[in-house]
Amino acid sequence: MWFHPESAQRLARLLEIPASRVSEAMGDDVRQTWVNNNYAMEGIVHEHDGESHVDAWGVEWTRQYGFNQITGFPLAHATREEVLRYRFPADKIEELMRLMLPVTAQEGEYFIGCDVSPCVYEMYWRLRGIEMALLDMAEAPDFASEMLGRCADFSAELSRAALARYEIDWLWTGDDVSSQLSMLMSPAAWRALIKPHLARVVSIGKSKGLWVAYHCCGALRPVIPDLIEIGIDVLNPVQCNCPGMDPLELKAEFGKRLAFMGGVDTQGLLPTGTVDEVRRATASLVEGMTRGGGGYILAASHTIPPETPDANIFAMYAEAGISREEIFDRATDIRRKLTSRPG
User: Fold this and answer.
1) Tens of pLDDT along 191-210?
2) For a FRET experiment, which of 86, 136, 233, 323 has its CA 20 to 30 Å from that of 293?
3) Based on the structure, what is the number of domains in the chain?
4) Under 8 Å between Cβ of 206 and 180
5) The domain spanning residue 330 has which CATH number?
6) By residue range, what is the domain housing residue 124?
């Protein structure tokens, strides 16, 4: 489960624990971190809106409305020759690998993942800007494929490094290639320019016998069969309000070949529904998505927004068998451990 930073802070105050321990108190089963460029977006936390940093890729991030947003694209105004001279931060790989140490310290207690996203398209547009990235794909597909391939090369390098060092349970990949209404490029363009490069990253996890998860927000229904073909095992976050992304329909069509993580609506249900509506919808989702033997991980369809009432969050967890009382008991244990530490 992912929480908007403001949601996590509010729950932390309610539970009287650090925000970094909220997932533990809530009973979440997965522990993972980012070792690719998503760390620069989500792992570096600024205290105030307007604060910025430039990451190892040359991307500038500024906190806006609680999240880090890109405010500087290093290749936005570069010529294609200059773009081809760009080099990924290979000298930072050991530093990036160390980000996994707090996660792997919990091996055996939680399900451990390593996040190497963004893998292909989303990494390229973070460097180039979304308009230029799409223009490159339309006007110069060979050039675009070369750069998309280099993005995948770095993600693959990080994957190999992580799997050589750590015992993990799944490799987490991803690229947001869809909007709320449709894919950002045609399915044919995705298959020609992105799929082969993504497949190379996925194959590294599969070669080690790992499950491989893929994250993409939005309406990506047209390429789900392709994701299955290249070896994706788990699809996240299943934004249920987008065309073609009804969770129960996806389960019926693809459930024998693909597991799903997500699907609890964060646009209408969680922030504006009643407690009873949240419980009924979550119970229906769990029942429908596990019919026939599992293949589902309960989670929201995006980060849980700040306007979500606490009662609705607890109602969703209750349908997973985690009561409010259990959450508060775990928070008490966390506080006890923190206060009993030496010094």
Assistant:
1) 999 999 999 999 999 999 99
2) 323
3) 1
4) no
5) 3.20.20.210
6) 5-340
